């Protein structure tokens, strides 16, 4: 039997397993050395990145907490759709500056880029504590979006340059879990800050922004001191460790050496429908996450809980989301499958939305919020890993990651406009719009799985050239 015939009889899974065990250069290094180095990387990168991302999420979504703590009355946000507009306007610069941010990242270096982003949005957050009108609040929200735009895509891009494809989702999940846990406690911390009401003449909601803004600026110093750069330039690894890391990446996807980002390459990625499918899936994942972030306290208030009870009850669903997110990430990396586990979480989210929207008991509605959190949160790192696993080259990775996360900003705009004040307390139109996004994501997962499986099959049969222009590369389903 010829080599080509034998290869045509192999399934995609068999080839991927074969590549992982024969091509990967781990065998050339002491397994203890590899394990120790990866653990060192995890401990150096994931906690600080998770903490920074947690602060980013808190700073962009704490408007809902501040609203219940007196901001609505002070700034007259109850007039028309002022609250929704103030929530939404942040996402306009956030979306537009994603791709430029990831291009600038390579020129500034990761540490400087991240530090500028963190200090910049911390200053905007601090400024929100001193606004006197709704218009001034909107200006601060725009500035917040400008500086946060380059942050999250940079984090994802940096992490994916250090690890092999099927090691990525657990890492993305870990730093996202750090953000979930920290974000889950933010309502409790915010409640404590509101107790400062009247101190120096400031209301409780103002103290939320002042304290969190000052803390964010302080974290900018930590970003400068401890944030990781790219593998080829970072100074916290030895030359032997650097070589091992780059060897593993090169064997896995042939892009350990950064290529130049050109206009032609950027346009090619922008014209690729697969790039936009990842973006639409990420939009579908972030929409329920933002909806919960902005509206969980108003939903709890509608159940008859007091402001303090609503703030405290906002935290437990984050604990369930933490467990669910890591469980699905572990399953995805273990099975080397992405789509099936993402689909499972879509169904969990849909179930939670139906329970919260259409049941009458406070206990069941609250349980529905747990399910929404569990389904939406795990899809965020899941889609990012799905996208990262199916592209090669630094230039395409940078642009595709930026597109994906920019569309997550569209999810934020969608959430803040369809979850309308006039639909309080059930927000039924918002619930149906969120479910429609989950159904769209299920459809895209089916289409992508079909396309990727067909391309893998054609490559195995020798009927097409190397996938993604990379010899030995096969798509992850």
TrEMBL record:
PANTHER family: MAJOR FACILITATOR SUPERFAMILY (MFS) PROFILE DOMAIN-CONTAINING PROTEIN, PERMEASE-RELATED. It is a multi-pass membrane protein. It is found in: Membrane. It comes from the Eukaryota. Keywords: Membrane, Transmembrane, Transmembrane helix, Transport. GO terms for molecular function: transmembrane transporter activity. Signal peptide: none annotated. InterPro entries: MFS, MFS_dom, MFS_trans_sf. Its main location: membrane. The keyword Transport applies. The chain crosses the membrane at residues 45-63, 83-105, 142-160, 172-193, 205-227, 280-305, 311-332, 339-360, 366-386, 398-419, 431-453. It comes from Candolleomyces aberdarensis. The keyword Ribonucleoprotein does not apply. Residues 45-457 form the Major facilitator superfamily (MFS) profile domain. One of its GO terms (cellular component) is membrane. Gene3D superfamilies: MFS general substrate transporter like domains. SUPFAM superfamilies: MFS general substrate transporter. This is Major facilitator superfamily (MFS) profile domain-containing protein.
């Amino acid at each position: 039997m010829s080599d080509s015939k034998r290869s045509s009889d192999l399934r995609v899974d068999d080839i991927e397993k074969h590549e992982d065990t024969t091509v990967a250069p781990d065998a050339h290094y002491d397994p203890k050395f590899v394990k120790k180095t990866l653990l060192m990387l995890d401990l150096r990168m994931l906690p600080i990145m998770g903490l920074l991302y947690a602060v980013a999420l808190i700073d962009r979504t704490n408007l809902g907490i501040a609203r219940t703590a007196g901001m609505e009355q002070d700034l007259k946000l109850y007039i028309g759709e002022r609250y929704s507009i103030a929530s939404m306007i942040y996402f306009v610069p956030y979306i537009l500056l994603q791709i430029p941010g990831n291009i600038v990242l390579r020129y500034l270096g990761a540490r400087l880029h991240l530090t500028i982003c963190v200090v910049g949005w911390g200053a905007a957050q601090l400024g929100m504590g001193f606004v006197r009108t709704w218009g001034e609040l909107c200006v601060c929200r725009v500035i917040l979006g400008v500086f946060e735009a380059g942050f999250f895509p940079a984090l994802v891009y940096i992490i994916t340059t250090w690890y092999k494809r099927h090691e990525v989702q657990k890492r993305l999940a870990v730093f996202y879990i750090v953000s979930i846990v920290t974000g889950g406690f933010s309502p409790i911390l915010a409640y404590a800050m509101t107790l400062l009401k009247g101190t120096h003449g400031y209301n409780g909601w103002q103290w939320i922004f002042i304290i969190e803004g000052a803390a964010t600026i302080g974290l900018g110093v930590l970003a400068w001191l401890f944030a990781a750069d790219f593998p080829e330039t970072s100074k916290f690894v030895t030359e032997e460790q650097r070589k091992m890391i780059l060897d593993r990446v090169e064997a896995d996807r042939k892009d350990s050496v950064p290529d130049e980002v050109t206009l032609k390459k950027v346009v090619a990625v922008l014209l690729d429908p697969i790039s936009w499918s990842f973006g639409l899936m990420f939009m579908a994942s972030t929409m329920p996450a933002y909806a919960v972030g902005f509206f969980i306290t108003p939903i709890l208030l509608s159940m008859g809980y007091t402001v303090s009870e609503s703030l405290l009850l906002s935290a437990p669903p984050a604990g369930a989301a933490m467990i669910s997110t890591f469980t699905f990430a572990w399953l995805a990396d273990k099975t080397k499958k992405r789509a099936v586990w993402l689909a499972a979480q879509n169904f969990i989210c849909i179930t939670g939305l139906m329970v919260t929207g259409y049941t009458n008991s406070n206990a069941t509605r609250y349980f529905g919020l747990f399910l929404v959190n569990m389904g939406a949160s795990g899809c965020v790192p899941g889609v990012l890993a799905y996208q990262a696993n199916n592209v090669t080259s630094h230039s395409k990775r940078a642009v595709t990651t930026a597109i994906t996360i920019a569309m997550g900003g569209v999810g934020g705009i969608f959430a803040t406009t369809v979850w309308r004040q006039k639909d309080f307390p059930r927000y039924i139109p918002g619930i149906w719009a969120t479910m429609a996004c989950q159904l769209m994501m299920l459809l895209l997962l089916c289409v992508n799985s079909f396309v990727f499986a067909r391309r893998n099959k054609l490559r195995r049969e020798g009927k097409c050239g190397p996938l993604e222009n990379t010899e030995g590369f096969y798509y992850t389903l």
